[in-house]
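Try this one yourself first.
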């Protein structure tokens, strides 16, 4: 199946860069454009040359991004190769574990403080 070309949406280009964990400098270097040009492109503040957009898209595609054109039921988007997303679920799970641990520690501290307050009133 041949997908329609992805329009030049700066939000999608920026999302792809962020998903890959690339800094502006890294993507600009890979695309062989200036960081300033990339910042302006992602901000949508300019009407960039088609060749600049294609250069950035190609650099992202080399990293495993697949740009998707709009369909009848959804707008344009992107997906990444499984090798790029490897470990994302583990990373999200680790963040959730840390959050739960902090939450549990905070609740334990509150319970201890409440117990201390109750003990103060009993004397």
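Now uncover the answer:
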């Amino acid at each position: 199946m041949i997908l329609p070309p992805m329009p030049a949406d700066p939000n999608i280009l920026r999302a792809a860069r962020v998903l890959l964990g690339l800094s502006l400098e890294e993507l600009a270097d890979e695309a062989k454009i200036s960081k300033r040009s990339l910042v302006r492109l992602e901000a949508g503040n300019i009407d960039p040359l088609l060749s600049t957009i294609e250069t950035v898209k190609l650099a992202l595609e080399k990293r495993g991004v697949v740009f998707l054109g709009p369909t009848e039921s959804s707008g344009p988007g992107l997906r990444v190769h499984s090798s790029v997303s490897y470990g994302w679920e583990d990373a999200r799970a680790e963040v959730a574990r840390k959050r739960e641990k902090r939450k549990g520690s905070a609740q334990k501290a509150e319970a201890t403080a409440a117990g201390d307050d109750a003990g103060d009133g009993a004397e």
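Discussion: Residues 32 and 90 are 33 Å apart (CA to CA). DSSP finds six helices and two strands in the chain.
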